[in-house]
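User: Continuing from earlier, I have the next pair ready.

Assistant: Great, send them over.

User: Here they are, in order.

Assistant: Folding the first of the pair now:
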Amino acid sequence: MKYGTIKKASFLSRPNRFIARVELDGREEIVHVKNTGRCRELLLENAEVYLEESANPDRKTKYDLIAVKKAERLINMDSSAPNKVVEEWLRAGGFCDNVSLVKPESKYGSSRFDFYVEAGEQKIFMEVKGVTLEENNVVMFPDAPSERAVKHIRELQEAVKHGYEAAVIFVIQMKGADYFTPNKKMHPEFANALVQAQKAGVKILAYDCLVSPDEIKLSSPVPVVL
């Protein structure tokens, strides 16, 4: 996916989950943060950040914070990006050939999954999780306890029981990680749910991304260590 007009700025502080103070072109600017997660290891004072200019001239905040430089690595932290890059990948046949249907936000029973895909006889439900947490070249999810994520994994198991294929894909919003693993220290219940889901037939996938200031694209499989 491509972004519009991009500006480089310097991070100052984050008053709350939704906004940040940055220095842009020598002035202080309040910008919207497109990720409500903690991201404490990313948004450090004076970190190099990248902003997308809003197309809406009447919006209160003129820019969205979409990426940050951590050491030499550029990390996309736009929480809407993972679903968009996965949709592009699905439609291009990245997951399976002969795709005839890609339906975002698809309801199944009392559940709502990120994607429902049909390809020949295959009927697949898929959940997408964005990953921005990296330590010592290992990427992890989640960065805070997430009961919602556990619920999604268990719901995928139910879909498998009823004859569907199911997968969860962790979109690593950076390049060059050694492997992905669930953040067991932060949320052991989620890590255990992944193990049970894999045993039940849910595919556990992780892919990294090519990231530039104005683009993010799903790239290569990354080893998953449960």
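And the other member of the pair:
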Amino acid sequence: MSSSTRKPRLLLDENVRFDLYRYVQNEGYDVVRSAISTSDHLLAKRTIKERRILVTNDQDFLWYPRHTIFSVIILRIPQYDGSALLSSFSKLMAEEKKFQGFAFILYPGSWDKEKLA
């Protein structure tokens, strides 16, 4: 991503490894973590208000209509595999350009991209 391209803003759900938060923060992303026990509805609402991509392990967000969530990345990488998480996430951020209105399912080394309903 060139320095003239603005990095996406991120909202990390409470269920995401802290390693990812530390990594994206060090990479210069505008990132915030959700408070413990924040409802799914409030997380989705915050993504719209702040134009942030929600990063979560919670697959329920795949069913949110596009007018209720900005974008979501569902992590399907084993929680114990921090290096696969960081390298896969980094690759997704470097290669994808359009996030708004899409859901991404991130696997080790690859991802699926779907339009939100």
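Worth noting for the second one:
The domain at 9-115 is CATH 3.40.50 (Rossmann fold). The chain is about 30% helix and 25% strand.
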